[in-house]
Write a structure and sequence with these properties.
The chain is mainly beta. It has 1 helix and 13 strands.
């Protein structure tokens, strides 16, 4: 009656128990340019929780985690990029997008840039296969909570891409005009629509 219109999204989520649940993928991710994106609803249990990890035992590779001090971290090898601190709130859905273009790492929360940092990192081809919900090289730091619409790309999204992604749930960034992203950049997508 007030000319307000909305769209219902009825996607589902994966529930991770924090004890043994995780996804093992066949992807050996060694691209210097990347974007990791996921809807995350983390439970606060006082531990660091892995969202996505493809590092080896020498910390070569990439990791996105929710830290026990409230916030996300991108860990690129030995370099860590933290959010401003209160971006992830326990038991609340947020869209987390982490990007790296070979020199700059960004973390977007709900379509808005939260932190940017200059980082110099390359990755060797022998990094571990990508895992969702725990460390790639050891059975620890299991995620506790829910995740949905998980995407892995071999290109760094722009701020416009991150905003579009947040405003258009369960859609792909390449569905909009004006982006340089192609289908070949998409390496993994769990839309959780069914």
């Amino acid at each position: 009656g007030n000319n307000n219109h909305g769209q219902i999204y009825s996607g589902r989520a994966l529930e991770f128990d924090g004890v043994s649940d995780y996804l093992d993928t066949p992807i050996k991710f060694d691209s210097t340019n990347f974007t990791f994106a996921a809807w995350v609803k983390a439970e606060d249990n006082g531990t660091n929780k892995i969202i996505i990890d493809c590092r080896d035992g020498d910390n070569d590779g990439i990791m996105l985690q929710v830290s026990n001090d409230a916030g996300e971290k991108i860990k690129l090898g030995l370099d860590t990029v933290d959010t401003t601190g209160s971006a992830i709130v326990a038991d609340k859905w947020v869209r987390v997008v982490a990007t790296y273009d070979g020199s700059t790492a960004n973390i977007y929360v709900n379509g808005v840039l939260d932190v940017t940092a200059s980082v110099s990192q390359t990755f060797s081809a022998d990094t571990k296969t990508l895992r969702i919900g725990r460390k790639a090289y050891g059975a620890s730091n299991y995620f506790t909570g829910l995740m949905s619409d998980i995407q892995v790309w071999t290109t760094a999204w722009t701020a416009d891409d991150a905003s579009y992604d947040y405003l258009n749930p369960e859609s792909l960034v390449l569905n909009r005009g004006g982006t340089s992203i192609t289908e070949s950049n998409l390496k993994l997508w769990y839309p959780m629509q069914d």
